[in-house]
Design a protein that fits this description.
Length: about 70
Amino acid sequence: ITAPTTILTGEASEPIYAEIAAGLVARIRGARHRSLPGLRHTGPITDPAPVAEALLAALDRAPRLP
């Protein structure tokens, strides 16, 4: 993967998700992990607003194409 990559997890998710995220960040050059406070694994469904905010922030950091 050469594109900017942000891995999102919910802070209240089972610990395995943070472990998986850490493994992905270690393997994808330049990847970032962001844990969203209070969210569980189903955060995109149960609490879409903070997930959307995190995605928009990641897009804002991405390089712009000419």
